Write a sequence for this structure.
């Protein structure tokens, strides 16, 4: 049903579906409200670092466990427009599994445990991504074996609890470069064979590297680049071929790392036949920028500085930086802002800020939510998700 | 009679140009005549192999760039009655670099082997396209972004403006000065006229951007970033004005539609399709 619903929505709208990362409570609220207001199905794509089960200590977004997050969203989602989705589930996708240096079998068991919590919480879309291995780079057949193991497990769990789930596959890494056509064909054929033999529905989505890559606060991949990006197949060549392969296999193509693409690039997504696209950090950064801005223009620069310092000191910006970057400390703080929204220091700061702003007749959280909404609406507009009269 | 006419476009970088000339003379001298276009270079620093010197006030001030520069060279050959003597034309900017082996012998051999190919481009080790040319070294593409093309004479003859030959429109559309989008147009014209455009890894090419990055003043051009912005702005304006396309993706779709059509009529070429 979920698969058919999405297919039929895509066909009738000729649009690109949007996956939104739940970067913060405001981001979750904004997404749910927009999905309901515009009656558009949105995939809420939670990574294990953002949201995970209690067993793993939850995630950095509002310290929510999977169960708490799912309940929060489903309670708010009056029209049932949100599809709860696990983004990059799989072994070693949780920091805890990495830090504990789990061996393969335990990491797989741990991933299964996380998926079990997802299914039990009502997640409907599971991305099976066992491409991470802290002990080396597994070859494509090894990755496929792990995909089948996890796929089979999740399907059995869902069947037991009589829940409907759909799957996303694809060994994506944020390289911006490209899966080869042969490899994609090979993977999809192997998965098709596995699903037929196991009498399990085929995956709905496959992740394709389309030449998108997020660094700092921009997209540095080839998709939106007017000049060549070294060692990457130009998106002009890669995209049509990959879409052709996906269409031949009857599987929807999903792009990751879509953040910060230009309006022009986004407007071409539906036309090129990109079925779905994930956006995450851009919305977190939009909220951080909005927070700093409202504090600064309201004479609360000391609070803005405090927030920037908390974010900077978290070092969460590190993985996003370009080599030899010219980014300022402020840029780094804005990149890391959403990781610290739920830290006690930031919560305290926001309470103080909200009080001060309330005196001026401003509702801080409402303001932040509106700013995130504007950021999400850019995708609604460009992906043809808004109804035209 | 040599089969290839090589045209090298230079502006104020005689050492670099001479090096490229000598490389080609050494490794491919038996296959090609080499012509150097001086695009408004200062008269005291011309390449020692200068064939033609474009020095009108406008060219002295702004140079010629790829489109007008190649039009200028081809037009000279045309006006001198030499154009029809060559089978193919190898169009290069002076920052092109090749390996220390023959470049043209394998390229000419490939053109002979692929009678439908009108445009042939060597591949670069920095291009992702090389991943698509792993098993079969030569394939037909709808997108080739390069500054080193080998063009078949029959293809040029089919699309060039012989009636009003000038540097603004003999082959390339010189109204798009810096040329963003012009390579798409050339490829579209190829497929629209039943010619294919191929990339091969049998020959490797590199573009040494350091000359532009480090010698912008000497070349008398804008710095890299400014030049890039002008290249894009002018090209986008040109695309909108000429085709009504507001995005390079429209141009891509346009080229690809001709590409796909080509294979409908040449199923024997399907094995070379990307």
């Amino acid at each position: 049903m979920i698969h058919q619903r999405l297919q039929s929505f895509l066909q009738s709208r000729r649009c690109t579906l949007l996956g939104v990362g739940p970067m913060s409570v405001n981001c979750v609220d904004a997404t749910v409200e927009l999905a309901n207001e515009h009656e558009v199905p949105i995939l809420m794509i939670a990574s294990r670092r953002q949201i995970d089960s209690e067993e793993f200590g939850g995630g950095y977004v509002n310290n929510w466990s999977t169960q708490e997050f799912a309940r929060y969203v489903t309670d708010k989602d009056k029209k049932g427009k949100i599809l709860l989705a696990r983004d990059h589930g799989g072994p070693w996708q949780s920091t805890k599994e990495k830090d504990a240096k789990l061996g393969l079998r335990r990491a797989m068991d741990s991933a299964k445990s996380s998926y079990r919590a997802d299914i039990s919480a009502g997640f409907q879309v599971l991305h099976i991504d066992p491409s991470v291995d802290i002990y080396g780079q597994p070859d494509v057949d090894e990755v496929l074996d792990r995909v089948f193991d996890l796929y089979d497990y999740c399907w059995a769990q869902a069947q037991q609890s009589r829940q409907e789930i759909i799957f996303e596959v694809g060994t994506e890494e944020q390289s911006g470069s490209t899966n080869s056509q042969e490899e994609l064909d090979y993977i999809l054929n192997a998965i098709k064979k596995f699903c037929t033999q196991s009498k399990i529905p085929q995956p709905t989505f496959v992740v394709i590297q389309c030449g998108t890559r997020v660094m700092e606060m921009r997209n540095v991949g080839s998709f939106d680049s007017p000049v060549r990006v070294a060692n990457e197949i130009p998106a002009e060549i890669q995209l049509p071929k990959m879409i052709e392969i996906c269409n031949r296999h009857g599987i929807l193509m999903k792009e990751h790392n879509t953040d910060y693409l230009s309006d022009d690039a986004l407007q071409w997504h539906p036309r090129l036949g990109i079925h779905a696209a994930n956006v995450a950090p851009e919305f977190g950064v939009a909220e951080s920028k909005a927070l700093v801005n409202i504090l600064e223009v309201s004479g609360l620069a000391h609070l803005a500085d405090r927030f920037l310092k908390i974010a900077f000191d978290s070092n969460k910006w590190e993985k996003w930086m370009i080599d030899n970057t010219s980014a300022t400390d402020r840029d780094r703080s804005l990149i890391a802002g959403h990781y610290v929204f739920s830290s006690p220091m930031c919560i305290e700061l926001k309470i103080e800020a909200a009080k001060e702003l309330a005196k001026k007749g401003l509702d801080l959280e409402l303001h932040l939510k509106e700013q995130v909404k504007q950021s999400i609406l850019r995708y609604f507009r460009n992906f043809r998700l808004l109804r035209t009269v | 009679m040599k089969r290839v006419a090589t045209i090298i476009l230079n502006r104020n970088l005689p050492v670099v140009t001479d090096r490229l000339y000598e490389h080609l003379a050494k490794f491919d001298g038996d296959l090609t005549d080499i012509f150097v276009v001086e695009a408004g270079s200062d008269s005291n620093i011309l390449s020692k192999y200068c064939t033609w010197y474009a020095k009108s006030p406008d060219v002295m001030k702004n140079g010629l760039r790829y489109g007008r520069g190649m039009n200028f060279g081809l037009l000279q050959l045309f006006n001198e009655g030499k154009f029809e003597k060559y089978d193919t034309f190898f169009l290069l900017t002076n920052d092109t670099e090749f390996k220390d082996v023959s470049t043209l012998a394998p390229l000419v051999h490939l053109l002979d082997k692929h009678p439908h190919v009108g445009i042939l481009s060597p591949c670069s080790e920095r291009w992702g396209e090389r991943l698509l040319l792993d098993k079969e070294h030569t394939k037909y593409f709808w997108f080739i972004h390069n500054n080193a093309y080998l063009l078949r004479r029959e293809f040029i003859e089919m699309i060039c403006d012989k009636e009003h030959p000038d540097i603004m429109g003999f082959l390339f559309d010189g109204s798009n000065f810096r040329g963003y989008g012009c390579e798409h147009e050339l490829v579209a014209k190829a497929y629209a006229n039943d010619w294919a455009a191929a990339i091969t890894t049998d020959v490797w090419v590199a573009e040494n951007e350091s000359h532009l990055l480090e010698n912008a003043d000497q070349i008398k051009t804008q710095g890299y970033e400014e030049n890039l912005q002008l290249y894009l702005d002018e090209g986008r304006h040109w695309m909108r004005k000429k085709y009504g396309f507001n995005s390079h993706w429209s141009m891509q779709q346009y080229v690809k539609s001709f590409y796909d059509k080509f294979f409908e009529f040449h199923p024997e070429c399907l094995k070379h399709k990307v």
